[in-house]
Model the fold of this input.
Amino acid sequence: MKDGYTWLGIEIFMARIPILSFDRGTLVLHPPPKAKSWMDYATWDDRIEKFRIPAIHYTELLAGLKQEQSSIDNQASNYTGLKLEASLPLKPYPHQQEALQAWQAAGKRGVVVLPTAAGKTYLALMAMETTPFSTLIVVPTLDLMHQWYTRLLATFPTAEVGLLGGGSRDQTSILVSTYDSAAIQAESLGNRYGLVIFDECHHLPTDFYRVIAEFAIAPYRLGLTATPERTDGKHEDLEILIGTEVYRKRAEDLMGGALADYRTEQILVKLTPEERENYNQLIKTRNEFLQESKIFLSSLEGWQQFVMASGRSSAGRRAMLAHRKSKEIAFGTEGKIRVLIDILGRHYPSQTLIFTTDNATVYRISQELLIPALTHQTPVKERHEILDKFREGIYKVLVASHVLNEGVDVPEASIAVILSGTGSEREYIQRLGRILRRSSDPNKQAILYEVVAEQTSEEGTADRRKGSLSKPEIKSPKLRQLELLPSKTNPEIGYSTQAPPPKIAAEKVNPWQEDDEF
Done:
């Protein structure tokens, strides 16, 4: 006989205390408590004939049982307390202290939104110091994983710090993992950490990555990002996966304090007559096909239809090829190279970053102007070498595509030039953030130049990436359209300050995709 004994031939049953255990990203509660609050989260599992509860509801489950004075044997938690001896060398900025207090006031669960270079990592270290439990830090790239590892060792020299990803599979009380590795190991990581820090947390709400949060019982969660908003709307899931947004500051809020003063200047560049003729013909070819096919490119669905249609007929393939060639003309017009040369000459020897959206333009600039280039094809060792020389001032200028947008420790710079980019607001904010880091010069003035091909689809793309920044709640400094004259004036290659022309038929007018590759 189970759970009891026999006395004078009468079976006497003893009430069993419910046991809460962790099993592969879920909680198992058995036998069922007399309380009722746990029923809101539970699902019956016929395979084991017990109730399962999603691990993410661990904190709410315990709070409900406690309120109903229902005792359980909690065997789910496997995270431990830590004795962290921090050697934080810097005094936090006011915004970092405010953000920490806001996170603590929210029960140490929530998202903090700060611009690039505003000290999000330092804030996370402060959170760890005030929440001394085994901690998992999740980051998007291997480079960022190693940066965190180095910073943690310097801040908590006596702590046990490990890595998960890139060939490392440590099991330590403080673990830094890539999103990929943490998602793969989510079932085993879920009950080992009391605090989870999601760096660049806008990556989390995807079907693959969200299990990191859903399979974790961690009562304390901190999300860090400069741009939480996602065009698919899934940023709203961050409230469920991490917590509410507890604090937000914009770059302009921190100008002259934690961040350097900055301004942005947009330069409109005319296509040459030959480029203009080719561009207009290509756009005409594309638009004729779109009109015949009744496809509109103002939404993701429209673009998906265009992609599918381009694979079904020769006319569709010609239209897609024409679209891509028109982009190439706008990206690499000769006028942009002339403007770039003028900017580099004007600001030499300031540390300068040049951004493009395509590798072809990166390599062209690198070869023509003898500037070190970084793309996703650059070997890791060579990339570190180039960045080190830029940091030391040996290299004054770097040109890159998307590789410097996120997850790379970019040395301090004061000038950035966007020759081409996507319609992603996130990318724009990240590129701006690369020049906002404070320097030894208290009078540092950072400048972001945005070079746009006039009367092309680039004008709409430039508007979209600054979309919400022009709204009242997130204002940006006024955009100046600067007229630059090349050293040798050519009347056929001008730099205009005219108002933007009407939208070209079938061009996108609304944001619909994180990376506007088309």
The two ends are 70 Å apart (CA to CA). The first strand starts at residue 4 and ends at 7.
